[in-house]
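Thread title: Can someone regenerate the structure for this chain?

I was given the following input by a collaborator and told the matching structure tokens would be attached. They weren't. Posting the sequence so someone can regenerate them.
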Amino acid sequence: MENEYLIGVQKNHYGEIMNFQTNTGRIISYRKAVQEIEQGILSGYDVLPNEQSLPRIHAVSMDTNTLNELPPF
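Best answer:
Regenerated them for you:
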């Protein structure tokens, strides 16, 4: 079975990423995405600690290396 990956983002009015859409069509929260990356369900990402807020998701397999450039859904 091929791992899922992120294809879209949903941001709040401050421009912060709130939710993701996966290639299978699932909509998951930022926190759920962190959990699924750590569990190996989502591939191509690392979770980096962030002392001041949620852990940061780092895209290791994208050309842009940023999730902010994923298209909105």
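The beta strands are 6-11, 17-22, 27-29, 45-48, 56-59.
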